[in-house]
Design goal:
Blueprint lengths: L8 E7 L3 H17 L8 E7 L6 H11 L3 E5 L6 H11 L4 E4 L10 H5 L8 E6 L6 H18 L11 E4 H6 L10 H7 L4 E6 L13 H21 L9
Parallel strand pairs: 1-2, 1-4, 2-3, 5-7
Antiparallel strand pairs: 4-6, 5-6
Helix pairs in contact: 1-2, 5-8
Length: about 240
């Protein structure tokens, strides 16, 4: 039985140069999580992983953590990339439910409340961005990558790169991450026998900061990583014990 004092949910936020977005993002997350019924009897935690920021995000995160007991901050000694930031956050988290969201304010924290009920029936709930507010290059590269990925992995998800996802803890305890594998969470979850669904969510234009992704590291690297995922799908160990 889970101790009542342990977090019911952990929010993981990878951060790379998002100083101006941090305070409004935290305000929104606190409001959403405070409104959830479970927060009346159980705590929650918000983990920021600073992936080598150089714009003052590190200092801003420390300031916010000093003001809010729900917040924990982890600073990398340099930039390691999003997969490492997520993996570090997952490993440091304690919640039964793990919520992944980016720090760019392009997702609506309120949509967390829309996804949460689905965790009663599914192990991984993915956001599906509607009416994307990105530039042409970003939209095009994502469209191509998603279509190729879906055809090869058969994960049934339209928008695997959507940063808003909610996991039940056993999923992350089973999946072993490698560089770039955060792009394939649905396929990896299905590969290990977990249930996955997607829910439409809102998407906004970036107001502060700049995107960390372009055609090169979004499309071509994703296609390269897809080869690794297909290799893993073909070789994953699957077996069952005979009923006694």
């Amino acid at each position: 039985m889970t101790p009542p004092s342990s977090p019911w949910a952990s929010v993981i936020v990878p951060i790379k140069d998002e100083r101006e977005n941090l305070s409004p993002l935290l305000t929104s997350l606190l409001k959403v999580l405070d409104s959830h019924e479970t927060s009346r009897s159980r705590p929650y935690e918000i983990l920021f992983v600073d992936d080598g920021s150089s714009d003052g995000s590190s200092e801003e995160l420390d300031r916010l953590a000093a003001q809010h007991s729900h917040v924990r901050v982890f600073h990398f000694d340099r930039n390691y990339g999003k997969t490492c930031a997520l993996d570090a956050g997952f490993s440091q988290s304690s919640g039964e439910i793990i919520i992944q969201i980016d720090g760019d304010l392009q997702q609506d924290s309120e949509d967390i409340l829309k996804l949460l009920p689905y965790t009663a029936a599914y192990d991984l709930v993915c956001g599906w961005r509607q009416q994307r507010q990105d530039g042409l290059v970003k939209k095009l590269s994502s469209l191509i990558a998603n279509r190729v990925r879906n055809r090869l992995t058969h994960d049934g998800i339209h928008d695997t790169a959507c940063p808003l996802k909610i996991f039940r803890r056993p999923v992350l305890e089973r999946i072993r991450l490698f560089e770039g594998m955060h792009r394939f969470f649905p396929a990896l979850a299905v590969m290990h026998g977990f249930t996955v669904t997607e829910v439409p969510v809102r998407h906004y234009s970036r107001i502060h900061g700049v995107s960390k992704y372009g055609m090169g590291n979004r499309l071509f690297k994703s296609l390269y990583d897809l080869i690794a995922v297909r290799w893993m799908q073909n070789r994953v160990l699957r077996y069952k014990f005979r009923d006694e």
